[in-house]
Amino acid sequence: MAERKKILIYGYGNPGRFDDGLGVRLAEDLEAWIHKNKIPGVDCDTNYQLNIEDAEIISKYDLVLFADASEEDIRNVSITPVSPSDSKIEFTMHAVSPAFVLDLCNQIYGKTPDTWLIHIKGQDWQFNEGLSKMAEKNLSIAIKKAKNIIQDPGKYLTLIKGPLINNSI
Amino acid sequence: MPRKITIEPVTRVEGHGKVTIHMDEDNQVVQSRLHIVEFRGFERFVQGRPYWEAPVLVQRLCGICPVSHHLAAAKALDVIVGAGTGDGLTPTGEKMRRLMHYGQIFQSHALHFFHLASPDLLFGIEADPNIRNIIGVAMEHKDLAIQGVMMRKFGQEVIKATAGKKIHGTGAIPGGINKSLTKEERDSFLKGEDPLNTDKMIEWSLGALDFFKTYHKANQQLVDNFASFPSSHLSLVRKDGAMDLYHGVLRAIDSEGKKILHDVDYQNYTEYIGEEVKNWTYMKFPFLKEIGKKDGWYRVGPLARMNTVDFIPTPLAQKELEEFKAYTNGKPNGMSMHMHWARLIEILHSAEQMKDLLNDPDIMGKDLVTKGTKTNEGVGLLEAPRGTLFHHYKINDHDQIEMANLIVSTTNNNIPMNLAVESVAKQYLTGHAVISEGMMNAVEVAIRAYDPCLSCATHALGKMPLEISLLDKDDRLIDRKNS
Question: What is the mean pLDDT of chain B?
């Protein structure tokens, strides 16, 4: 029997900007589910934005699922593989992207965990806590997909052949 | 042909702004300005909210220095709940807040030096931008990159243990704190597995200082002359003149070291500090009233603090301060690139402070909150990573915030940053018909030395990138950098 993968669910965003908190909510809800069901080998973390120390954090895992809110033109949820990239655009802020974190992890620790980005579509970015109705619905879809991946990463991630597979898993 | 350069966004700074540089027919720089174009919102946003929400609300100004806003607001509310003006908290309340604050200074300075500044120092201001970044540092100087990552992580873990969360914590409350450290938490920082312990953080801080001093020796001309200009300096100092980044009295000195503000109580800051508004930026222009609007501007931040304090109350950082002050024969230092040197001394001081606080039994005490008689107005100041941070609130009889005024560090550095841009623009761009990426980066390096947080400075609610544009005398765009 194959050894179980060590998995990190990492949600980021600003819960004070309404739907921008989608990634954080996903990680928090999954953490409660993991705790309740005593699922081993899965950790959850959250932050306002990603930064350089996250390279060290992800170096300890086999599979990393970043989760973030999206205002892009996706249907509700997209799950895409992340490749290492030091794309220069990432230097416009003190925050960095999942691709940058993965690249830094590779350069410093020589490790590139299997990394995916769960994008959850939001629509309302007002200065408030909570989620819009649409975001709540999309969060439910994202949680369902993430649970499937956690329970059998090999099966569900290999189903994703290309980017932006919305409801296929 | 006359030209105007706009730099927008300026990279590796927090927030959004725009630099415009006007050039005449002879390629001479005739005017340069750092504009902040984002709408201000937080001071109005908090009006009507219950006062006890302020420490949690205002920290959402920023994802980089939320702890500073959290603590400055809490200090202002200490006054409102009758818990004194910075010295009335319980020993545990004050020491937990100090530990949180020094953890914040440590991680913020580490992020700035290793992530944002070291690429320019290691590879050169005009090096290929594809290499001149933290990934380039990781490829060629792995040890330095690892230290940057782990020092930032250590500071973040201290914040998490004291504030409850790495970002937007809830630890500080009006009159005190809502938790103290457990023995396990304390021991994890003092005796944690290598490298995550205070001794290693002190060792690495000393190593970073050695790195800078070696660089300085090899590049003395650049480091000493880049964006160098005299100024007044302002910061909090402890009543005995020592460096104290959490609490103290306001001191300002002029470019010769003569005191302008004589260690005054910051509760009365409006008697000493004015704020001017200009039509080309949302960022305000604070000034010392005694000097006036025109010449009353000043620097804040690590460089200013090295100039204002008489001594640093931790031994290793004090030794470094003595070397720093000796370099200018005890006169105030106006060299913008020495901000990096000053920042590294503060990293070392913060590491020493954290160790001292963790070894103090009060950090595990149970007496967390001071109660007193409520008033309707309070001012909270502290030395944030980027400089002096002012929070001022008035509340009504229904406990709602009626007035909020924030003067953040980057706002205090508004004119110095503009002067730094002008100095470097003249030095690097004058006489050149073609503007290279390296020349544009030189302008950014000058701004980055101040580690500005532009979203804080305008109290913005959104993301704020920055651009540099070159325009002619008729405002026609000649060149633009948007990296």
Answer: 87
Q: What is the CATH number of the domain that holds A40?
A: 3.40.50.1450
Residue whose structure tokens are 């457990």: B182
Residue A125 lies in a domain: yes
Predicted local confidence at residue A88, as pLDDT: 47
Q: Which two tokens stand for residue A161?
A: 């052949």
CATH topology of domain B89-228+337-369: Cytochrome-c3 Hydrogenase; chain B (1.10.645)
Q: Is B156 helix (H, G, I), strand (E, B) or coil?
A: helix
CA A105 – CA A98 distance, rounded (Å): 10
Taking the Cβ of residue A91 and every Cβ of chain B, the question of whether any pair is shorter than 8 Å is answered with yes
Whether B451 contacts chain A with CB within 8 A = no
Query: In the prediction, which pLDDT does A164 show?
Result: 46
Domain ranges, residue A111: 7-159
Closest by Cβ to A94, choosing from B64, B114, B138: B64
Q: Which of residues 16-45 of A touch B (CB under 8 A)?
A: 16-17
Considering only residues B234 and A75, tell me which one the structure prediction assigns the higher pLDDT: B234
User: pLDDT (tens digit, 9 = 90+) per residue, B150-159?
Assistant: 999 999 999 9
Distance from CA of B13 to the nearest CA of A (A): 6
Residues of chain B with CATH 1.10.645.10: 89-228+337-369
Kindly state whether residue A59 falls inside one of the protein's structural domains: yes
Does residue A164 lie within any of the structural domains?
no
Distance CA B412, CA B417 (A): 10
What is the pLDDT, as a whole number, of residue B467? 67
Give CA–CA dist B483/B479, Å, rounded: 13
Whether A67 maps to a domain, the answer reads: yes
CB-based burial of residue B277 (10 Å sphere; 0-12 exposed, 13-18 middle, 19+ buried)?
A: exposed
Using one digit for the tens of pLDDT, what is the confidence trace for B315-328?
A: 999 999 999 999 99
Across the range B300-321, mean pLDDT stands at: 98
Chain A nearest C-alpha distance from B41 (Å): 11
Instruction: Give B-chain residues touching A55 at CB under 8 angstroms.
Output: 149
Using left for φ > 0, alpha for ψ between -120 and 50, and beta otherwise, residue A43 falls in beta
- Which of B15, B66, B142 is nearest residue A108 as measured by Cβ atoms? B142
Please give the backbone phi and psi of residue A77, each rounded to the nearest 5 degrees, phi first: -140, 135
Total beta-carbon pairs less than 8 A apart between chain A and chain B? 84
| Subunit contact B463:A48, Cβ cutoff 8 A | no
> Which among A108, A149, A158, A129 has a CA at the least distance from the CA of B168?
A129
